[in-house]
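Q: Protein A?
A:
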Amino acid sequence: MKVLITGSSGFIGGFLAAYCANAGSSVLGIDIKEPTAASSGSFERCDVRDFDRLSKLISEFGPERIFHLAAQSCPTTSLVEPQKTIESNVVGTVNLFESLRALELRPIVVVACSSAEYGPIAPEDLPVRETHPLHPSHPYGVSKVAQDLLALQYFTNDSIPAIRLRIFKTTGPGKLGEVCSDLARRAVEIEMGIRPPVMPVGNLTSHRSIVDVRDLVGALGSSADYCTPGEVYNVGGSNNYSVQELIEAIRAQVSVFFTVNQRPELMRLVDEPVTTGNNSKFEACTGWHPKIPLDITLRDIMSWWRTRLNQSVEMQQPRGLATVQQ
């Protein structure tokens, strides 16, 4: 099986490349940056906004499956860089499908859409289903709606077998700029004495369903095997956690006491109060269920941060003076 992964150097992309390689697939990853760790399979530097380069790589590789993960994926960044977000996420998606159309290739294309498409959801509509209206709160969410509907249109008009997954909050070892990882890092820094025993936080009451990336890549793989092209599916964690609950779960895994300091500057400009998806459609189709519990996910994230921060401390230690030979 020949598998192409766009955005392969990203957080999910790295785990997915390893998952596909371990399953025996020939993997080609493309991204605008080199992988930070040893990559699984081959890698080519490519910006999905570069139609000619992208089309050439697809033609040469001839993928049987494509996982389209390439995106500007930060909602906050999209508020200050909306043009970049739309170009990367929307134009990049058009380039992918136009390449396949021009080359007359019809691989299965799994498009990583987002729960951000739904926007704020009334409590009575939770957990949200795929039929709920889409009201994104920021340019990132808008760009994901566009990706979602473009995939549907290329399936409808050009018979490209696209599967759309609206992915909910994902975390795991190596994730940066995400609430579980940020809280875990601060706790480890307190434990190591790098920062005082005070954890600065933003909104404590927002709730998210959380799925471990190691579960998610299994969902991605299963979607290509079992999901119906043209359909859209929610994929996320089974349980819903507030930021306060995440802090308490992290507190149980460190050996030092810390207090919590809520700070206005850490509040998101746009933040959906609760985001929880109904996975029943996807689970009925694939038999997939998330298996990794939150305490294991947090344990592994903290272990990753301990290793990373210890390496950073060691690099900053002054080297001993060499003996001068006379």
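Q: Protein B?
A:
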Amino acid sequence: MSAIRTQGLRKTFGPVVGLQGLDLEVRPQTVFGFLGPNGAGKTTTLRLLAGLSRPTAGQAWIGGAPVGPESPAREMVGYLPEEPRFYPWMTASEFLAKYVGGLFKMEARQARRRAAELLELVGLQDVARRRIGGFSRGMRQRLGMAQALLNDPPVLLLDEPVSALDPGGRRDMLELIGGFKEQRTVFMSTHILEDVERICDTIGVLNHGELVTLEEREALLSRYAVPGIEAEFSADGASVAAWAEAARREPGVLAVEVDGHLARLRLDGGPQTGARVQALVLGSGMPVERFQIARPTLEDVFLRLVEST
């Protein structure tokens, strides 16, 4: 059984189409990365899956249960919005143990114990008794993660979960999210491609409310990423630029960028193109400091997919 499944999921806002007939399945105990430019429909999808909005058409299921505002599927979901909201006069401990714990009808002692565990997990144990009104945006995002985990849900819906964190906080939170899949399924919306490439098993790309592709990470990179070569010369910039201009006319070379002594070439992936470019580098007459086949990145794939739709 899929942890998350949608069929023909559609949402319109008057004449504006936010989501167009979304069909997808997410396997249990995986981290699913949901990518797309601003306005693509990522947050709309998450709100529908969380049961906070009703679809115009289609259906979604969480753990086999139909999703909706009154559905029992909501009890299986922990949801972190991009900008979580809190009562500013409450402390972090009060918010989790009394307010959120009360919503889930948890016994008071159990709620306090769970709140303490989660505040330590997200790195807020030292500010547990501080009023939330004084929290930074990054601290509120951490508290939002704790709130999403309070009832130990099998499915986590995370909307830009590390966007407000500093580099160290991002690293820690991504490690935490990556470890969740041992116990639960994570559906993570983000525009930070590096984060998706680091921890996600499967990736879906959304553009203009429509799913462009849905594949496992490595298969996606292998299928769509454009191969490249970096060549660094021990020569003056003018000589490198002249060589790059000649390389740009070589069959199979899609683009060439020059940065001082370094030339980056994007290739068409043809079986002979790499060999021809390598021969061109070695025959340049300039000393070669470095020659490297550039690993394709998720950013290359994302831009290629989005620009083509």
